[in-house]
Amino acid sequence: xxxxxxxxxxxxxxxxxxxxxxxxxPVLGMVLFIIxxxxxxxxxxxxxxxIRVVTHDPWPAPGTxxxxxxxxxxxxxxxxxxxxxHWALVSIKRGNRFGLKxxxxxxxxxxxxxxxxxxxxxxxxxWAPRDSAQATIFYSLTGLHxxxxxxGLCALLMVTIRSFRGHYSPEHHQGMxxxxxxxxxxxxxxxxxxxxxxxx
Length: 200
Prior knowledge:
It is a single chain. By secondary structure, the chain is mainly alpha-helical. The chain has one domain (24-57, 78-199): Up-down Bundle (Four Helix Bundle (Hemerythrin (Met), subunit A)), CATH 1.20.120.80. It contains six helices and no strands. The chain has helices spanning 2-10, 25-54, 68-93, 97-125, 133-164, 174-199. Helix 3 (68-93) packs antiparallel against helix 6 (174-199) and helix 5 runs antiparallel to helix 6 (174-199). The radius of gyration is 22 Å and the shape is elongated. The relative contact order is 0.15.
């Protein structure tokens, strides 16, 4: 009788939920969110390929120019930010707090530089979204990606602040790993956008 009462006293609340997946819920949630975002980008890419493949309109529109070389440098900056956030994650897994802080600061600054250069490109393009269908698609896709970069920078800023406050450890670092997954998605999606709009 005493044993049963002790067992009852040790258990509080409902039993733990059954989990059929080995993926942590926050990671799974981020993956599902990324899939939904890919669908949004897919809608804009459908319009882009309609212009280029179905109607055979020139890209970019006549009288407009896209700065491939300058944006190529900006692309390299964003890709390096993927390396620095990976360095930050590997560092905290090994208990290297300096690597975590340095990696997060560098990632944030590189992402901020990318966004600044993208806005600067808009200022100097010399044509607006309303000028042609090609311009509308160009600004829509790059602007959609820029919005994702801004959201990612907000998340990176919070992770960076928490890193300096000692919130992560080798055992508990999911709070920076999940935003890192999102940032890798942002970088990967930009490769697709850059290749389609600037290179092809």
